[in-house]
Amino acid sequence: MATLGDIGVSALINILIAFAFLLAFALLRIQPINDRVYFPKWYINGGRSSPRRGGNFVAKFVNLNFHTYLTFLNWMPQALKMSESELINHAGLDSAVFLRIYTLGLKIFVPITVVALLILIPVNVSSGTLFFLRKELVVSDIDKLSISNVRPQSIRFFVHIGLEYLFTIWICYMLYQEYDNVATMRLHFFASQHRRAEQFTVVVRNVPQIPGHSISDSLDHFFKTNHPDHYLCHQAVYDANKFAKLVRKRNRLQNWLDYNQLKFERHPEKRPTKKTGFFGLWGERVDSIDFYKQQIKEFDKKMAEERQKVVKDPKSILPVAFVSFKSRWGAAVCAQTQQSKNPTLWITNWAPEPRDVYWRNLAIPFVSLTIRKLIISLSVFALVFFYMIPIAFVQSLANLEGLERVAPFLRPVIELNFIKSFLQGFLPGLALKIFLYILPTILMIMSRIEGHIALSTLERRASAKYYYFMLVNVFLGSIVTGTAFQQLHSFLHQSPTQIPRTIGVSIPMKATFFITYIMVDGWAGIASEILRLKPLVIFHVKNMFLVKTERDRERAMDPGSVDYPETLPSLQLYFLLGIVYAVVTPILLPFILVFFAFAYLVYRHQIINVYNPQYESGAAFWPHVHSRIIESLLISQLLLMGLLSTKKAANSTPLLVILPVLTLSFHKYCKNRFEPAFRKYPLEEAMAKDIMDGTTDTEPDLNLKAFLADAYLHPIFRSFEEEELVEVRVDKVRVDRHQSYADNVQTSDLSSPSPPHYSYQLTSPPQDINHHGLPPLYAYNLSSPPHYGYHYEVEP
Amino acid sequence: MATLGDIGVSALINILIAFAFLLAFALLRIQPINDRVYFPKWYINGGRSSPRRGGNFVAKFVNLNFHTYLTFLNWMPQALKMSESELINHAGLDSAVFLRIYTLGLKIFVPITVVALLILIPVNVSSGTLFFLRKELVVSDIDKLSISNVRPQSIRFFVHIGLEYLFTIWICYMLYQEYDNVATMRLHFFASQHRRAEQFTVVVRNVPQIPGHSISDSLDHFFKTNHPDHYLCHQAVYDANKFAKLVRKRNRLQNWLDYNQLKFERHPEKRPTKKTGFFGLWGERVDSIDFYKQQIKEFDKKMAEERQKVVKDPKSILPVAFVSFKSRWGAAVCAQTQQSKNPTLWITNWAPEPRDVYWRNLAIPFVSLTIRKLIISLSVFALVFFYMIPIAFVQSLANLEGLERVAPFLRPVIELNFIKSFLQGFLPGLALKIFLYILPTILMIMSRIEGHIALSTLERRASAKYYYFMLVNVFLGSIVTGTAFQQLHSFLHQSPTQIPRTIGVSIPMKATFFITYIMVDGWAGIASEILRLKPLVIFHVKNMFLVKTERDRERAMDPGSVDYPETLPSLQLYFLLGIVYAVVTPILLPFILVFFAFAYLVYRHQIINVYNPQYESGAAFWPHVHSRIIESLLISQLLLMGLLSTKKAANSTPLLVILPVLTLSFHKYCKNRFEPAFRKYPLEEAMAKDIMDGTTDTEPDLNLKAFLADAYLHPIFRSFEEEELVEVRVDKVRVDRHQSYADNVQTSDLSSPSPPHYSYQLTSPPQDINHHGLPPLYAYNLSSPPHYGYHYEVEP
Questions:
Q1: Are A205 and A294 members of one domain?
Q2: Are residues B503 and B545 in the same domain?
Q3: Closest C-alpha to B205, from B339, B401, B5, B310
Q4: What is the DSSP letter of B556?
Q5: Which of B329, B352, B375 finishes a domain?
Q6: For B558, what's the count of Cα atoms within 13 Å in the CB-facing half-sphere?
Q7: pTM surpassing 0.95?
Q8: Minimal C-alpha gap between B83 and chain A (Å)
Q9: ipTM confidence score
């Protein structure tokens, strides 16, 4: 077991690593050439269009103002400047509430740390007989500060139990406050939002196919009958998955074309060539530019055909639709009620934001959803408990002998002693490392197979799966020896009362491991987050090979968004560690506090300067965060009971039994009290907002139908230029962007005559739109190319 | 262990008992004097107003037609004559669907019995080595027919596993069909119902108290704002629990008065007297008639005061209301949506039928409901697992020594040898028997404390509690030795995989016990049900002491209704037994079949001729029945796995693992598919019915507001006569009844001047009602006594 000194050394190393990252960040971020990597949010917001420092040629790429190098931590106070309401305006409610998780961590753990250190450390230290055996150093220093140091049957366990009660009450109180706050913020956020398509829209799934009637007709008929006063219009959904695949492939070809053209421009003496075979490894050598141009042309033809097919073929209309209502009240009613006698038909739910829709899953037949969920649940269970089996199998293959057999030419290198020992140490772990690296992707794919139709839901589901993986394999796996599979086996064959004992008794011994884990994963990990090494490299690579215009550069900067599927679970793991160890080994708490404070600063900076959220779910993840913390409380109570029962504290342990019951009741109360705010839209709110709109509407003439007409059009049916211009509408720097757009059109060879027309159409008054006769099935307009035409359609 | 011969003897005894009951029933039911006990439904329906056979004086009481004595089983074909749709009209959907549970049992178990007997018995019998040891008779005959007879590791277990799959699939298929049928019947029943108050009404709980506004004002304001197009009116609820108590007490006094007056009439020579003290045991001797008249007068005064208080005091208006809407659509929307930002305020639910409302629980503050539920859950858990502790305590007191100490004068009697041995055998069991007798009442009280506001919900909840009690204490308790508490203790300290083994291995051994149980509880118990011994005795006692008029006699007949809290759980227990033993000991199945067939006949007869349902819930209990059968399937699968694993059938047992997963998926699918029909009212249905009403309305002029105005008035605020007359309105034999009513008014001394006036008011055209100016708060009218006056108010 580690001594306090060992921990100190480990802490020092990790602090140094963290500082190295911070220093690197400080140096890199003030270089103008990196400005788009470290401040993309301001470019997207329109707050900045080029790096701040101009001057001579060198200063364009390197920062020559040496004064700024000295104040390398000044991003921290800057990150704290923005108020919460500004933050919500700047980055959305999701991001603001995400930051509140860190402040919640601080609010919960600062008082707990103070109380635990002041009360428990003296109690633990002064209690043990071990304390007087200091000379022999039979136990680690950490253990002397923990509950292990207390004699069995000691009366002092009442202190621990009392504190467990106190901490539980405190955490529940903070959770209640926070849930209340977040729920209010969510409702306030919706109330203060401008008129948005999703407020009036409901997604209807499993529309029944009536022979002789189109989906569109049955939709119209059904909602005109059953919501006569409120139904406005609907938008059918096309199965454009095949088309989307073509678009993606074409984009890849376009990238290659751009790359080759750029290469040719830089070295005009030599036309780039490539081999046509597999991965360009063999086959006939051809001119690259011609080859890709030819390929793109073929693709354009294919896509035009496919698009015609999608639009013309009634079979490509999915039994899903976005139905819009005249008022928020009407939409709220439709989303919350059962429509049909058969509850598996005409299933209505709130529509996600247009940008939050995961279009591909809309094509999944509704009937298969139950089976998909079942299969994925079983797979996740298998993944959590048996993931070691395939990895062990791969490990058994990926040894040095196998490598030599596959690649005999490497033998001389491998036979070198120091490389051999390195590989022998490295190879077996490689499969595991690769698996852990791609695990979030696997979980995301699993969530996709489950068939959720919103990106936000997908991310939440992936996050839940990742949390359970970590709970079993990081938390339990570290405490109990053996693989998760062995644990599962032993748990199934142990009595249910034995399990908390087995785990509880190992808890204090693993404190040093988790302290190290917090420092490596929490401290150094977060510091690496701010450095954005991967986006930095990608940006510069793209900049070098693909970027021809300012617009390309903008597209290359890829701000990303908070990676909820990975960040939330690890955050929840820290809550679990803090809550479990608060009473057992309180010395772990300061390390968690440092993590929360540091991570808060880093993410605040990133959210202000970097991330550009893909969607706005209105903090829909909060109920999950709340439930996970409640779960952590329950786990901590069970484990403490197990631990105490091995300490023969029979007179005090039964006092703990009531605590889980109270915690569960609290959870149930909170669920009743606050969760509906995240699931349903109260009619009172809807009506209030409708009334407000009716009286204080800033755009009283805006025709709602026109406003909603193409809100839920598959994004693939819009050309990219057009999409950008639609965004421009809400931008402050409209003129700026239009100018740069016009430049792009001239400089790029993606000449498209139609987008400017269409983009104005959207901003033009509604009668103009009506003049164009937009039917509810707006996508029909796709058949009139001039309006929606893809740039490749009109290419020469 | 019992041999087949033992079972035969037991069967014979039980069949004889059952026949004795049936014979007694056949004799008693054809006596005209018992006509009101065995055919009350026809009196209530108005199909019969006096016993069928008239003739001379003796024939009024005793059946002299000896021919009818010979055909003593002819009620059976009669019971089968009525078609299901007639049955629904006659007794309601609840009763019709209740009978379907029995036919479902038959549909499930007839094919299973045939297959199991044909396939499993030969497999089991031919398999064992035991078969060849017949001479020694080391095992019971039953065991030779069961799975116990199969050699360990035998390949024949594949037959059992295959049949378990087959039976599961068959049961699931039948369950699906039946759920589908019942859900359709429910929707059809609602669709075919005439205009009813509950279709337009929603019960709103936790109406916030706004200082300076009455509950009524805030209700009006809230619903006018948030449901402007649909809100019609509301009825406040008064806290009349104290008043109801007074009414109950007064009724008791009235009974005593009636009794004494009748006594005096029969023996005019001696005026009845009583002592005023405790239970009439001591105190001053007074004239009974005067005493009770005096007491009633005092009560009337108290009640008048209390009534004034209830009506005048704004504090007696509860934060609960029945809110009515202009259309079913409006009510369906309001019931299914969240109204307020704070989801614990303005909670809306479907209103139960007026006669189904459990008024007392409306006064329970909403905040306390969560705590009540928690406390009751814990109590039920304690009751199920620890009920033996208090009973053992009582038993230790209630022995002969204790009895002698308390009642020394009994000593000579007790010391008699045969009485002593009888008591020693009897007393210890007495406490347990009393407990089991009052258990349903205890569970019902517990459900009431939980705070449900509908009688139907109360009965369903009590039924669920009783089922779990039986599952643990009858099913598991009989299989595993020891009290439930000991079982719980051992289960907590066993590994989860060990539990099904422990139980599974004992299952075949207990088959004979359960066969006996089925015969005693099922066969003889059901036969005693048809005899109606208790109501018979009570009716004749009342007839002797209390009945002065025909109306009193009608009231004394007490038809009762199906006792769901006791019947459903035992029914579900039979399903459990059948499903568990189908594969293990198939010889048990025929006994269950006999039970289902016999009970079906008996209950069909009772429902047609006796029971008068208190409420109509539209078969709301069906989802519970369905879930319990699914639970039984899961239990049987787990236990079979346990049993097989002790048989070392390692190669076949894993095949069973997938079955529970499939069963659970099926359950989840059914829940999604059908349960909403029992929880929500689809808008499509509501709208269709609204539209139908609008076009084909038979009472187009009826003002809906007047129709709904007093639908949800606390029944205690109506006098009994009035209530009866309101019922008359829908009766076919209107004239008949009015006549008898007029008779009653003249012969009874409960002279009430107002009811006839009021009763016509209800049937008179709406403008008449409007003329009386019924406000939404209809109960205010109570302050104008002539309209609603209680008969005691105008008494001299």
A1: yes
A2: yes
A3: B339
A4: H
A5: B352
A6: 13
A7: no
A8: 26
A9: 0.77
